[in-house]
Amino acid sequence: MARVVQKFGGSSVADADSIKRVAKRIVATKQAGHEVVVVISAMGDTTDELMDLAFRVSPQPAPRELDMLLTAGERMSAALLAMAIGDQGLSARSFTGSQAGVITTGTHGNARIIDITPGRIVSALQTGDVVIVAGFQGVSQDTKDITTIGRGGSDTTAVALAASLGADYCEIYTDVDGVFTADPRIAPNARRIPRISYEEMLEMAACGAKILHLRCVEYARREHVPVHVRSSFTTKEGTWVTDLEEGSVMEQAIISGVAHDRGEAKITITGVPDRIGEAARVFEAIASIEVNIDMIVQNVSAVSTGRTDISFTLPKTDGKVAVAALNAIKEEVGFDDILYDDQIGKVSVVGVGMRSHPGVTAKFFAALAEAEVNIEMISTSEIRISVVVDQDDVDRAVRAAHTAFGLDSEEQAVVYAGTGR
Ligand code: ADP
Ligand code: ASP
Ligand code: MG
Questions:
Q1: Could you tell me if residue 420 is inside a domain?
Q2: Is 212 part of a structural domain of the chain?
Q3: Are 125 and 1 in contact (CB under 8 A)?
Q4: What values do phi and psi take at 330, rounded to 5?
Q5: How far away, in angstroms, is 311 Cα from ligand 3 center?
Q6: Is the pTM of this model over 0.90?
Q7: Which segments cross the bilayer (predicted)?
Q8: At what angle do helices 63-87 and 16-31 cross, to 10 degrees?
Q9: Are 226 and 169 spatial neighbours (Cβ–Cβ below 8 Å)?
Q10: Which residues contact 100 (CB under 8 A, 6 or more apart)?
Q11: Which atom of ligand 2 has the smallest separation from the CA of 213?
């Protein structure tokens, strides 16, 4: 007997029939003799629809109320799934994140899980029930308000629960057959990666591969939770995300995947006086509003003016507040202007093999040039190279890099459901 956490994403429970289909799968796991804890997402595009609704009611919804609203989506699917499992002859009980003991920080919309007190889950398991937990939500330790843990956060709920319950593994059921070498919606000849290290998956997720939530991978790596990403529409083996094994096949691959991200924007501050401490002042202003920045480029200052330009990228959702914070220090720093561009995309190649193989950058850039993609910014880590390009060039850049690194497969990847929203 194993203790298993199974997470089903929104596209796997988009309507009544899908909920019954997922219920069947859970019942089969339970009947095979395992203890099952299920983490469930909101149905289909419910979260986006609730978000749209909130913005139609108010241009700036109060973050506390937005969390109350969004968590309702997961609560609906949890209850519906429990009903469907009940109809198939097993006893199931649904819990909100708060009832399941998911304790978080108080940052609405992007809270962090700080503890799990799974008392109620453990007792429900002891009485033989299937436990269903509403994903992506918790309760703030300080304010006791309901929080959400960031878009795509149900993956993190699942891994955090798996860690705290000492589960044998965590299954993430979704609308594709696993983690692929690129998003199959963009690169149809992407190939499934049978096994990937936490480290590489972390870079892929950080670079926008939304197949797994970034914090979920961080959690899994820290707690050594084996994660199996697979399709809820087939019984095929998917991708195992685990520790890197010595001398494994993975180490041979120079590039394990290409990731892209359309969620960032670029801010350029022009004419910044080239004096010690000015860059610090600019980034202190951004840090004080708790915005995370990603890439930074500073040019050499022009000799004639003694001024330089600084560009950086940040999540699009933080664009407005960041521009406002910079405007507030414009006089003090004495720069010329702020340019804001949200029509950009980031494309990254990721692979541990890069450490020992020279020429990866040259190959990547040559592929982009051949595809007539202009590079606006560049950043690298030990196992990643990222570029910022025009949003319209993202798909072409992903496909060009995928082909250049020999990742193309003969077979077409299947996308079973979902709108890709
Ligand atoms: P869920 O609703 O199950 O959480 P998501 O939409 O969050 O599903 O994530 C699954 C989607 O992630 C896929 O449909 C695919 O378009 C996208 N994706 C992005 N990068 C990858 C990748 N490298 N491998 C597989 N899927 C990817
Ligand atoms: N429903 C939430 C979202 O769409 C959380 C999740 O699905 O993981 O972001
Ligand atoms: Mg997801």
A1: no
A2: no
A3: no
A4: -60, -50
A5: 30
A6: yes
A7: none
A8: 60
A9: yes
A10: 116, 118, 120, 121, 131, 133, 134, 161
A11: 8
Q: Is any ligand 1 atom within 6 A of the Cβ of residue 402?
A: no
Structure tokens at 97: 């994140």
Q: Are residues 157 and 291 in the same domain?
A: no
Q: Which atom of ligand 2 is nearest to the CA of 153?
A: 8
Residue 355: CB atoms within 10 Å: 11
Q: Which ligand is nearest to the CA of 176?
A: 1
Q: Which residues are annotated as a binding site?
A: 7-10, 47, 74, 174-175, 185
Q: Is 257 in the pocket of ligand 2 (CB under 6 A)?
A: no
Domain assignment present for 328: yes
Residue-wise pLDDT tens digits, 32-50 = 999 999 999 999 999 999 9
User: 406 CA to middle of ligand 1, Å?
Assistant: 22
Q: Please, which pLDDT band fits residue 341 given cuts at 50, 70 and 90?
A: very high
Question: Any idea what the CATH number is for the domain that residue 333 is in?
Answer: 3.30.70.260
Verify whether ligand 1 is closer than 6 Å to residue 128 (CB atom): no
Per the domain annotation, does 303 fall within a domain? yes
Same domain, yes or no: 155 and 73: yes
Question: Quick one: 8 and 50 in the same domain?
Answer: yes
Query: Average pLDDT in the 332-342 region?
Result: 93
What average pLDDT does this structure show over 16-40? 97
| % of the chain exceeding 70 in pLDDT | 98
Is the CB of 209 within 6 Å of ligand 1? Answer: yes
Q: The CATH number of the domain where 379 resides is what?
A: 3.30.2130.10
